[in-house]
Amino acid sequence: MIADGTFRNVPRASGVWLLLSSLAFSCAGLDWPQFRGVNHDGISTDRIVTNWTGAVTNPVWRIRLTNALCSLVVSGGKVYTQTTRPVGGQPKEICVALSATNGVELWAAPLDDASYPHGGVGYDDGPRSTPAVADGGVFVLTSYLKLYRLDPATGSVVWQKDLPSLYGAVVIPWQNAASPLIGNGLIYLNASTSSESLMALRTSDGSLAWRAQTAGLTHSTPVLATIHGVPQVIFATHQGVTSVNPTNGDLLWRASYPFFYNTSLAPSPVVWQDIVFIAAARAYAMGSVAYQASVSNGVWTASRLWWTNTIAAHWMTPICHEGHLFGQFGIFGFDSPNSQLTCLDIRTGVVKWQTPGFGRAGTVLVNNQLVSLTERGELVLVKADTNAYVELGRFQAILDYQPDSNKCWNGPAVSDGKIFVRSSSYVAGFDLSAPALTLEPPEFVSADTLALTVAAANGAPLTSNRVAGMEVLTGTNLMESLSQWVKLTNDLILTNGRVRVDNIDASEHPRRYFIVREPD
User: Fold this and answer.
1) CATH code for 43-431?
2) pLDDT (0 to 100) of residue 520
3) What does the DSSP 8-state code read for residue 484?
4) Edge-to-edge strands, sheet with 251-256
5) How many CB atoms lie within 10 A of CB 336?
6) What whole-number distance in Å separates Cα of residue 231 and Cα of residue 250?
């Protein structure tokens, strides 16, 4: 991030004008419009504060919202999720829109029956599928495979497609947990039909764009990825990993599992370069496996790199950063609130480190730092270090953990530096955004020496750990790339929440430019 600012003309004692600037190149925070974020990979480029003490640990808002295991999405100033409520005396799945500013419920749309007969969860059982926002609509795939497009302003139904009635879709035990995946004006899903079960429906009207491949529905959400320059949609199905062309459903490649599918496979595929990672539950005699996809003369193949049944996950999808997976994994039997935050090499499966007590929630990457939500409702900031577990901060985001009525079985959502979390009883928002930096007008302390002051644009005090990541650069030509600018070696002195840079030599050039930035 480079500080916002405007050009300033500053008179020198010699009468020659000195031009300084802080240049405006700062990046706006992105929405979190689909399950696992804008790129379906659990990664955000938003900048957040890393000093997790004091007021930043207080929720901007926290509301009670019960009975759901799905995650959150954020778009256009609204937070979308699901819940269950009685409607006409019958329990119904409800999509709700909340204000991202204060948590006020803006609308609630009843969609489908709320019935979860298979047990094994708790009194807080509810919908598992997360809404998606794209192309001017809010899209929800219910537990019983009804697909809706809702108006984001009012929650009114724009169109609805009953997949069992239209295509013969069959609801699997523990119902649908896959979220709608949207790209290129299409909604990609596994419709759980007896043949040609992978489908793409148009976001505009829900009409069928294509239908192809026969593959059993799991609880896993598919992902869009580009491998060797070729876009593809990757599904974790009963039979194995299936990759198809997103425009027509043609098969690109398929790889079988080194285990038999049993009961449930819920984590999404994780793609890094040409490697695809799949995790499944040890309790169901499955495990974790990585494949490498290759193409030669238009023919695709996928070879297994490694697999293990000692690293496994029920539904916790890890992120991949610099060739390493970071996320919550269990070991034996059913995963538990003590499941371990784990780092392992995606290329070899070698575990680099593990730390217990994170449970079955989720981890995302925010500006190259791990933000993990524990099952007991803590937010934990961890350095994305492959050599050791390094905790940077922790606070209680969701209160009153109860295994049968208030637990976190999902991951955080990040938008504009704000982090939104939910449990099966509460939703909360925290403002961890790092305010933009600005260079104040320079001060000449002598004819050829000046001082600069860096401050937060909103007046908030800067912290020492943020100052440690700052750089002040100088240059003489605005047309040069930043790599040609020179980093000042002067000390950055933090005083009363502002940074002072003293003893800057202003004698060499009649015209110089300055910027302050925070490299990623």
Assistant:
1) 2.130.10.10
2) 63
3) G
4) 223-227, 230-236, 240-244, 251-256
5) 15
6) 12
Contact 453, 498 (CB under 8 A): yes
Q: Is CATH 2.60.40 the classification given to domain 8-26+436-517? A: yes
- Could you tell me if residue 138 is left (phi over 0), alpha (psi between -120 and 50 degrees) or otherwise beta? beta
If phi > 0 it is left, if psi is from -120 to 50 it is alpha, else beta; for residue 285 that is left
pLDDT tens-digit map of 281-311: 988 999 999 999 999 999 999 999 999 998 9
100 neighbors 418 (Cβ within 8 angstroms): yes
Pair of tokens at residue 466: 């943020």
Q: Which long-range contacts (CB under 8 A, 24 or more apart) does 157-162 make?
A: 157/109, 159/205, 159/206, 160/206, 161/201, 161/206
pTM score, whole prediction: 0.89
How wide is the angle at C-alpha 43 spanned by C-alphas 32 and 94, nearest 5°?
Answer: 35
Contact assessment for residue 452 and residue 498, using Cβ atoms and an 8 Å cutoff? no
Q: Confirm if 24 and 1 have CB atoms less than 8 A apart.
A: no
Rounded CA gap, 396 and 152, in Å?
A: 31
Say yes or no to pLDDT of 519 above 90.
Answer: no
Q: Show the CA angle centred on residue 169, arms to residues 167 and 175, nearest 5°.
A: 155
Let me know: does 40 contact 52? Beta carbons within 8 Å.
Answer: no
407 Rama sector, left if φ>0, alpha if ψ -120 to 50, beta otherwise: beta
Q: What is the enclosing helix (H) or strand (E) of 166?
A: helix 163-167
Q: Encoding tokens for residue 94?
A: 């409800």
Spatial distance between the Cα atoms of 3 and 387, rounded to a whole number of angstroms:
33
Domain ranges for the chain, please list them: 8-26+436-517, 43-431
Residue 492: count other Cβ atoms within 10 Å of its Cβ: 18
